[in-house]
Write a structure and sequence with these properties.
The protein is mainly alpha-helical. It has one domain. Helices cover 79% and strands 0% of the residues. The protein has 6 helices and no strands. The longest helix has 31 residues. The protein is flat. The protein starts with 5 loop residues before the first helix and ends with a helix.
């Protein structure tokens, strides 16, 4: 199981992408929850947050896909690709909030991607 097929690579990348989107949505949920917390208790604020439900749904779907992919691909090869969610999440957040990412940030993300490639190419 040394080589990952293109299909499995794409599915794992979609899982990482989904996790990055879910992190953006949880960030929006946290803002909504703590804005509501000013006038409601914390449990009611969480209960009334539509973002939390959307984020949980995406996480559940991604987790089911992850469990399935682990039945097909060795964890040693799948996990580095899935870890790219740490690249996607800040990119989505910066795009959503229209925040400029400086050269150091891009260099850091590039190093992460190169590291993932090196780890995955065993």
């Amino acid at each position: 199981m040394k080589n990952i097929s293109v299909e499995f690579f794409f599915i794992i990348l979609c899982i990482a992408f989904s996790m990055g989107i879910a992190q953006l949505i949880f960030s929006l949920a946290s803002e909504q929850i703590f804005d509501n917390f000013k006038t409601q208790n914390i449990f009611k604020s969480i209960y009334k947050s539509h973002w939390i439900y959307i984020g949980l749904f995406i996480y559940i779907v991604a987790t089911v896909a992850w469990i399935w992919i682990l039945s097909k691909v060795d964890l040693r090869f799948a996990y580095p690709i899935a870890s790219l969610s740490i690249v996607f999440a800040p990119l989505f957040k910066s795009y959503y909030e229209n925040i400029y990412l400086g050269p150091k940030y891009w260099l850091g993300l590039g190093i992460i991607v190169i590291g993932v490639i090196l780890i995955s190419d065993n």
